[in-house]
Amino acid sequence: MAALGVATYSTATVALYNSWYRDYPMGDFRLFNDNREWLQMDKAGHVFSSYFQTAYSCDVARWTGLSKKHSLITGAAIGLLSQTTIEVMDGFSTQWGFSIGDISANLAGAALFVGQEWWLDQQIVFIKESSLPVRYDKSHLNAVGGGAYSTLERRATELFGPGLLERALKDYNVQTYWASIDIKSLTHIKAWPSWLNIALGLGAQNLYGGFENKWTEGDATYDLNSVMPRYRQYYLSLDINWRKIRTKNHLVNGIFNGLNIFKMPAPAIEYSNKEWSFHLLFW
Predict the structure, then answer these.
(1) Rounded Cα–Cα distance for residues 131 and 283 (Å)
(2) Which of 174, 193, 228, 261 could form a disulfide with 206 if both were Cys (CB 3.0 to 4.6 A apart)?
(3) Angle at Cα 185 formed by Cα 184 and Cα 190, nearest 5°?
(4) pLDDT (tens digit, 9 = 90+) per residue, 254-265?
(5) DSSP secondary structure of 56-118
């Protein structure tokens, strides 16, 4: 298992560097306070990533025959090592910096999984994600003072990349993070299906910069702070706990376990901008 872990970690680290950091200059290690960036959606992403990496690493450790205690230690170590590697790379990048807030979110995600397994021997609250990339508007945006124009599509490509996979991973406008709650285990209501969870979601819209919707392209400045204000979105929805759906086929059960990091499309109630809305099928 140790050899497999080293190989997986090394491969993932190289892939991460090539996809995220290779095109940006590196410098001296530095700290960076990004706690106000992206309306904290990036912090929710760190909680999610650390949670599911810890969970799956723990599953693999248990499969190899390790005890519950040592599986939890191994899972948390792998999950936190993966996330800390990203933070160290950020620390040496002139584009970003080492974030104490990110490290805290990573610890929270790992602690949520380990704490529930240790004291409850199960997960009552699962951290999940849903994401559906969108096409951004190509209408002209005039620069401050005129003389130049850009588009939301150009800005999104600069921030989040051109590909669908890149945008699914980086675009906070299309990501929603969920706390999916096992109602059956929490309340012991006999009539409640064991596989049906209630999910609380967090999203955001109009994020075209880390701290504000203002940027420069060449000598031109664009400012959308007044016309496209940033805002959070809060959701209430239903979800499937795939770990409670068991079959006699180990492969199918493994697929179900893998699906459990994603929030399933379902009806949802949204509250944002002091208004309520209903989604018949929210992705």
Answers:
(1) 7
(2) 228
(3) 40
(4) 899 999 999 999
(5) HHHHHHHHTT--HHHHHHHHHHHHHHHHHHHHHHHHHBTTS-B-HHHHHHHHHHHHHHHHHHH
Cα(99)–Cα(126) distance, integer angstroms? 25
- pTM (2 d.p.): 0.92
The span from the CA of 38 to the CA of 82, in Å, is 22
**Whole-angstrom Cα distance, residue 39 to residue 60?**
34
Task: Please report, for residues 197, 235, 236, 246, the alpha-carbon distance to residue 239 in angstroms, rounded to integers and kept in the order given.
Answer: 5, 12, 10, 16
Distance CA 143, CA 98 (A): 33
Residue 5 has pLDDT above 60, yes or no: no
Read off the pLDDT of residues 98-145 as tens digits, 9 standing for 90 and up. Answer: 999 999 999 999 999 999 999 999 999 999 999 988 899 999 999 999
AA identity, residue 86:
I
Asked whether the CA dihedral 115, 118, 119, 123 is positive or negative, the reply is positive
